[in-house]
Amino acid sequence: MVATAGEAERLYALNVSGVEIQVVVSGVGAVAAALATQAALSASSYDLTISAGIGGAFEGSGLTVGGVALACEIVQADLGAWDGSSFLPLSALGLEVAAGNTGRFACWPASLSLGVPCGPFITVSSVTGSVAGAAELLRRVPGALVEGMEGAGVAHAALLAGVPVAEVRGISNFVGLRDRAAWRISEALAGLDTGLRRVLECLAESE
């Protein structure tokens, strides 16, 4: 599942022995991603759903632009309520997005070592554009590696369908002050290709 045609373009040629791959362009954001994932999972049977694309890395994560990271957990970090200046996640409100789930989705294959940095990924509805905003997200999700806009939507649909989920993102920029000119899209897409190959090779070996 990828958000844009640009992110999908080079993935159509992705070939890993023993794995049948379908690339679906969902559109941007968690809602579009959830609906597209639900439609795909209803139409056929799959062993794994992957949310793939480019994303921003958090400063201090150890990631570099052009690198790649794998999610051990996907957190829908802006779903909750503001109480004055304090943000309350769903867990603090006693609410769930699905039975037993408060917007934190465990990922496959978080327990495996693929030689790719692995940690929590954050899903937001709006890309962060300030240092303060990045710091607030890290306060909510300590150790977060990457920010994206679709992962939690894909994960929610996969959870309801009973299909494992993974998220892989190539790093195009750092989260914080928005400097579109500094983004490195081609390098991030190359990193994404590398990360996806490792995940799919692991999937093939597990079959």
Automatic annotation (TrEMBL):
Residue span(s) of domain Nucleoside phosphorylase: 8-184
Protein keywords: Glycosidase, Hydrolase, Menaquinone biosynthesis
GO terms of molecular function: adenosylhomocysteine nucleosidase activity; methylthioadenosine nucleosidase activity
Single biological process term from Gene Ontology: L-methionine salvage from S-adenosylmethionine
Recorded GO CC terms: cytosol
Record-linked InterPro entries: FL_hydrolase_MqnB, Nucleoside_phosphorylase_d, Nucleoside_phosphorylase_sf
Catalytic reaction equation(s): futalosine + H2O = dehypoxanthine futalosine + hypoxanthine
Pathways per UniProt: Quinol/quinone metabolism; menaquinone biosynthesis
Signal peptide (residue range): none
Enzyme Commission code: 3.2.2.26
Enzyme class: hydrolase
Family (UniProt): Belongs to the PNP/UDP phosphorylase family. Futalosine hydrolase subfamily.
PANTHER family reported in the protein's UniProt record: 5'-METHYLTHIOADENOSINE/S-ADENOSYLHOMOCYSTEINE NUCLEOSIDASE, FUTALOSINE HYDROLASE
Role noted for this protein: Catalyzes the hydrolysis of futalosine (FL) to dehypoxanthine futalosine (DHFL) and hypoxanthine, a step in the biosynthesis of menaquinone (MK, vitamin K2).
Name of the protein described by the UniProt record: Futalosine hydrolase
Organism the protein comes from: Deinococcus psychrotolerans
Recorded name of the encoding gene: mqnB
